[in-house]
Amino acid sequence: MTEHIVVVGHGMVSHRFVSTLGTRYADADVAVTVIGEEADPAYDRVGLSAYVGAWERDALHLDDARHSADPRVTVRSGRLVTAIDTGARRVELDSGEYVDYDTLVLATGSRAFVPPVPGHDLPGCHVYRTLDDLDAIRAAAERAGAGAHGVVIGGGLLGIEAANALSLLGLVPHVVERNDRLMPVQVDGRGGALLGDLIRDRGIDVHLSVTDTVIEESAAGGAGLRVALTSDDGETDVVDAALVVFSVGVRPRDELARAAGIAVAERGGVLTDRACRTSDPHVYAIGECAAIEGTCYGLVGPGYTSAEVAAGQITGDAGTEFTGADLATKLKLMGVDVASFGDAHGRTPDCLEVVVDDPVARTYSKLVLSDDALTLLGGVFVGDAGPYQLLKPLLGRTLPSSTPLALITPGTAADSGVGVDSLPDDAQICSCNAVTKGDLREAICEGACDVPALKACTRAGTSCGSCLPLMRQVLEAEGVEQSTALCEHFDQSRSELFEIVTVTGIRTFSGLIGRFGRGTGCDICKPTVASILASTSSDHVLDGEQAALQDTNDHFLANIQKNGTYSVVPRMPGGEVTAEQLIVIGEIARDHDLYVKVTGGQRIDLFGARVEELPAIWRRLVEAGMESGHAYGKSLRTVKSCVGTSWCRYGQQDSVAMAVLLETRYRGLRAPHKIKMAVSGCARECAEARGKDVGVIATENGWNLYVGGNGGATPRHAQLLAGDLTDDQLIRYIDRTVMFYVRTAERLQRMAPWLEALEGGLDHLREVVCDDSLGLAAELEQRMEAHVAGYVDEWAAVLDDPDKLARFVSFVNAPEAPDPTVQFEQRDGRKVPVLLGSPAMPVRS
Description:
29% of the residues lie in helices and 22% in strands.
């Protein structure tokens, strides 16, 4: 008999509960109704700050957010449960409807706590909790304008994230904290002091030890606020603020349970046992609303565990219980590494503290040990959290090193004896999903041979992603070799071959394979090496030996179509084209009987050209001032744009001029895969910049730069790399990003998967591009300048070279004869190819 399960709340923990039913208990005979108060389905609340600047709600939605892949699940968003009738086993909705249940799961989460300070309810006061909250903060910031001040009450993790959001919105942020340091729960006094200094360096004013806060309407009138902050020394600071954001913690949402007579804990939260069952045997509570044996856990990891426990209990797996929670924290706040775990404050009696405080490097590390210095009890890291990932799994265990100081001393940590080999099987590698080293080893034994396979089998690395380096180390420790060889002819990866070509100056495939490879090559290594050679010089792709390396498209500088004909795509930088050029395009299409299509990249595609027609077509286009659009190459395709300030009343910057500049700068640059860019003149995003490898969006103060997006079969939203850039900063950062991608990406790797696979991800890229952490900035810029200076239109060069022109024939023994297998027909008013068996492919000369 089908069991009807109603889940109240649709956040991350609710999503995990339903997903667990769909995978681990796929055969369970259940019908699940999920009722979510927010209009959005489950989204990544931990990554809420990523919404700022992007303003794309869908980008934060969890995979299969509406559980459409499971027919047993119905999701009702934008509905509020107003009451629970435990006797009738039904819930009442704000619409007046009733939904019956056999089992009820409360996943109502928590609400932002607003302290009762004077003025807390004035207009202009906000909380930082949901997407709607951030939309309201954004609207208030836009009304205030750049340079206005914003106050964040609360100096914990979310408070600092809120301050960063205000900074991205153009405000001057102030953080207010009652304690004597930021993040007082996670870090100790010295760590908090360093964190405060590092945060101040990023343009945020920090007010500590504030004992009294009063918010009043500004005496000057308008929508402003006057915020008086009195510290424990009696001094009062006054901030004239456009808005105030409260981020001082959360409170479990247990009001539905209270009203229904279900037991709640003394300090709030729906009281449950270790099976996550409440005082009503038909009701479970999970996530932040649950007080498991009286304790509420405000982290996603324990929430996921409670979701899986409840799913197991409901479906008959009575052995699942909540056995504790990993409260460790690792994060990067505004580019500052912070991590803590275990007894970070050294509260264990007779414990020892080992500290490395480096004021020059601006890093702080502390280990808390047992009185015999053998057992690890906790740790704190600020500025550099490198040792955290390997040390955290050793919490409560005997350290392998007899000199604990070596574990956190730069230059000696690698020789301390701590590595993935030293971790026992029950050591937790992924705390978000409670995956141990033993779980990973078991998955490897069952055939998981790379990180994506481990993620699919165990869910490790699918939340915050900080455990990915350790997952790779476990694979290596288990003897699973992660081959980076390009193909059977080269043991090196593409990025390694790129460096070899750069250092040695080798300019031919035969020279490279003769010295560093074996055999004669294949259809993998030949075009890859051809791309590397093109990326590292301005030589024509059809010069000398390189011509024989190209695939069909590059060999004929055109995209081959299904019937053996080719398409012609002239470049139109930023989508601009003159009337005279349009006339020439029309005449060419008429004279050669070509099918004409406007592409999604703001240019015109001419289809149906025979190979022997290509030179004549391109001669007319070149004479009209047009160039190759490189639609056939693994290179820059287009830079899409809106009309920006030229015509649009919403435009904030000249997006057309910037798109033209970018397209003419990066045209012809060969890369591991095609590159698409876009420039939007305002946040309305008409050019869809966040769906491109490189996206630029205008702001009032300059440009926001996004990287790592793409469309296609696996769409990705680009991520914000840097904000409010000048024109010069924008160009420098794009130069560095694109050249770093060209230099390090693997064969046929688009920028989105490259960024996902990059060690350290977006944070590392930001350090390389914006902070020059590898000292490569000047070299990357020089390489791009060399490309720009050496650019020559490929088709113009072909037209001037009789040897290159000689290859554009259908038959080498009858150069003037057209291919008789190429035929067309009219279908619904459109010219389309007719396939007569297999199309005859042109013979290479």
